[in-house]
Automatic annotation (TrEMBL):
GO terms for biological process: poly(A)+ mRNA export from nucleus; protein import into nucleus. Belongs to the nucleoporin interacting component (NIC) family. It comes from Mucor saturninus. Keywords: Membrane, mRNA transport, Nuclear pore complex, Nucleus, Protein transport, Translocation, Transport. It is found in: Nucleus envelope; Nucleus, Nuclear pore complex. GO terms for cellular component: nuclear pore. GO terms for molecular function: structural constituent of nuclear pore. PANTHER family: NUCLEAR PORE COMPLEX PROTEIN NUP93 (PTHR11225:SF4), NUCLEAR PORE COMPLEX PROTEIN NUP93 NUCLEOPORIN NUP93 DEAD EYE PROTEIN (PTHR11225). This is Nuclear pore protein. InterPro entries: Nucleoporin_int_Nup93/Nic96.
Amino acid sequence: MSNEFFKQLRQKAALINSEVNHDNVSAMQRSLSQMDRELEAMHKRIPPTQELHAKAHDFLASSGIDTDYVSNPINTINIFERRQLEDHTNINKFLQREHEYMLINSVEEQRQVNNEEFDDFFNSQIAEFLDITDRDRMEEDENVADYKSFETDNVSTGANRISEYANVIKTLNANRLVNNDFNLLTNLANIRNLSDLKKSQDGANESWSILSHLINKSGVEDRLEGRFLHDYTTQPNDSTSATNTRRRLIKASKSWLEQQSAQYMNDYLNKNATKVKAGGNPAVTHRLRAFVELVFKTTSGWTDDRFEIVDAFPVWVFIYILIRCGHLDIAAKYVESNAEKFASERRFVEYFKEYVKADHHCVSKDTQESILADYHKFGYGSTKVDPYKLIIYKIIGRCELHKKSFPDVIKTTEDYIWLQLMLVREVTATEKNHFERYRLCDLQREITNLGNEYFDRHEPNPYIFFKILLLTHQFEESIDHLHKQRRLRLEAVHFAIPLFYCGLLKVPPMDKIQTNQILITLENNVKTLNFPRLIYQYVKVYLLERPKEALHYLALLSLYSPKKGYPNNDMVNLARTYVCKFTAESKDFKIILGSSGQERASGFADELKDLLYISSENEFNAKIIEPIAEKWAQTGRCIDAVYAYSLSRDYTMMVDILAKELSDALQKPQSYRITDPKLSQLSNKEIIDFSIKTMNQYESNEYISSLIDDTRKATIRTLIQALLFRVAYEEGRYETALQHIQQADIIPLEGDSNQLQLYAYRFSGLDENVKKNIPELLLNVMDILYKAW
């Protein structure tokens, strides 16, 4: 075929191809020259022969391949060996067996899980018990150390002071019982201070004075009990009521510092009366002028050449002294009536007048900016400036709050605290303000950062920092600071009590109280005092042998109750808990709980029922006696638990305690019980004698006997006989042992099949305390029979 023929054929194919839908057909990408070369190569690979030519003609003549001829032999070929199905497989049995295996595996897995969980639980209980034991031992060691330290420092007066304090607390509670308010502060302050050192005596007296001033001069006229609880302690810090209360307390702190300054000046004048010659004029201005001339003037002139002298007198010093002594109103009148003396600072008269009259002494924004401009001109100008003038501008304009000290004027710790209190401003969340932030919490943070060492550098005196903390209303930190001094822990507790009485102490939530820490910091840096722990530690150290006084101290916790403004009953419940704990651990528990008889005789705890918010005998049983009984039962004090349940007239529980005690004695040998604090330390004989005596006593009383069901009585008799059997068995008295087991009537000693069936039938009706001991008793009986016969 020629190339021309192929060209024509390609052109026709292209025309046909354009009309065909060939979306799924790939296009041929070969040129004619390529096709020629491939055909020529194929022709060369298969050389033509006559035989091939003949076969080709035959293939075409027969219309292609005979498919039947080719496929029939292929279909007859089978390369796999045919297998016959045998129908002898039991599918149901297989599934049943698999199901059993799964159940067994599941049970074994669950058993393993249960064992692991039990081991974990047991280990956690042991760890918790050891932790509590270690904590109690550590606390006991600390208590012993505290008491020894107290005895060392208080050889003669310590015991008397403990009694004096306790008498005040008893008087307080007596007034609470009749709903009378009580001047607790005065009564506690009158008790002589611990130390014979004058500086410590003075520090304690001043501390009582500060506390009294804060509580009585804060502008709150409610009764002393819970005075600040509702509107301050239990409110958020940024609430309106809490903010207003802080403002009043700040004012009271400044007032105390100002009174102290005025008293110092009066004492100084009296001491130098011959030099001053103030005469009999009692006017404040007259005496303060005399003080200024005495202190700031010498024979050669005024002590500081920077003083601005007007009419031969330093007016700025005089105004500052008036303000420092709390006579702001007199200072205002002096400035207004002597305006010509301030000709150089004409605007000062307006500044000062606005400052005195403004709410919370906050001048307007424009005035504050003008004062600040003048302050900067004075402070950073080239001319000398009177330091007392500068500090007055600092106070009225609240200038440069970042500069805390002012050494030219502020020379004492009291002056420093007073200046900071003059500068702080409390603002509610709803009040708009334009002034720079400097609040009480900022001052408190500053005081805390400086620390005790900063203020008490020379002669260590814990009362110095204690007073500072009180004046800046860090009541929780102040008690913690004093409590860290072992010799002053008696004082720390009795400073904390009036703060708690008036509602000025924040206490931590219940989940934080169990820690030994006294000062606990919560979220948002809120400081709380662990007052319940403080009181309980005091009771354990100083009042362990004085149960009546101890209960009175524990009853103080109920001061924070919903009736007094506290949001919940946590403190009331905690007071009950601590009363129960102390009673359970006290050897004098009988005089606390009372004695049993026809009617329960009252104990010390009954006197304080109203303070614990217990209104009936049933409630007293439920809240006090029964928790104590449960604790005794859990710690193996069977005799005491029986006593407590007899007081509450719960004879059913009393018998159940006896049954548990007898059952434990059967299960655990005495040598093991001695090492387990949860089991009784009594011998088997003592347990038997006590059980017999108790049952005889109450069964002889027809009324009490009727309250105990017969099944429980039978259980006790059975367990007594079983324990008598065990004692005789361990002592080798086999005949006596068999007699007791026969009287117990729980194990057959004869071979009669009917008897065996009867005992087997009765087994299911036995008390659990009896049933769990039968296997061991049966082994003991078999051992006796083997040895005897």
